[in-house]
Amino acid sequence: MEALDAIRGIVDAVKLGVEKQADNYHSPSRSELEDLAKELHSVGDIKHKKDDYNKRLDALASDFLPKLSDEDRGRFMGAIFDGDKGATGSWLQGDRLDKLVADGRISADDRRTVLSSLASGYNNGHVDKDVTWDFLKMGGVDGEIVDKNPAGSRAGADYQNENNSGEVFDRLLAGLDDGKGGVNQEFSKFIEKFSIDQINDGAPGNDKDANSRGDYLAC
């Protein structure tokens, strides 16, 4: 009986701590989120050398995002992309996120947090469709097998498969998984909205029409 009372006491203490944390939470202003994005960008910053992009993405997933509410995580993603126009070409990338999980640097829950935050940002108008397209690496879903060596090269042909549709599909499935055996409703809403927006707004590039965009999404 004493043991049971002790367990109940621990549970009550945890609940009280969570309630206090919720009561004391301060939703950051846009300016504060921009400052936080700058702080994040300093993580992994190496002067006169290539930055440690994995360290920065790790920090986003396991340190910065968990401290924010679900809504503010989406706002923060918007502040990051607005302040770092080259993020999706360097450190904030879906395939890099997947590799961090595969290498044991972050957990599947950490990846889920990033994907859900992106979804929240998109659903609420903080993250635009082009940045989202680049983050998810959608541009490669219609890739083909190509010869990387120039014609006449002594090294011979170097055929590589540039189609990443399987990787993108797995990435979307990871976002849909809520980690509890159910569906992440924020990410489910995101997939629906993102797909409709892509088709309605036209092509992912100036050389593609709406039908081509639909082909991308069908891959």
Summarize the structure.
This protein has 219 residues and is mainly alpha-helical. The protein is 61% helix and 3% strand.
Report on this model:
With 219 residues, the protein is an all-alpha fold. The chain has helices at residues 2-24, 30-42, 53-64, 70-83, 94-102, 108-123, 129-136, 165-176, 185-201, 210-218; strands at residues 145-147, 159-161. Helix 2 (30-42) crosses helix 3, helix 2 crosses helix 4 (70-83) and helix 4 (70-83) packs across helix 6 (108-123). The protein has a two-stranded antiparallel ribbon with strand order 1-2.
Name some characteristics of this structure.
disordered N terminus, 2 strands, mainly alpha, 61% helix, 219 residues, two-stranded antiparallel ribbon, 10 helices, single chain, 3% strand
Q: What is the C-alpha radius of gyration, as a whole number of Å? A: 21 Å
Overall body shape? globular
Q: What's the mean pLDDT score?
A: 81
| Helical residues, percent | 55-70%
Derived from helix and strand composition plus strand pairing, the structural class reads: mainly alpha
**Proportion of residues in β-strands:** under 5%
**DSSP strand tally:** 2
For the record, give the distance between the C-alpha atoms at the N and C termini, rounded to a whole number. 59 Å
Q: How many helical elements?
A: 10
| Physical arrangement of strands within the biggest beta sheet | 1-2
Largest sheet: 2 strands, antiparallel
- SSE ordering: HHHHHHHEEHHH
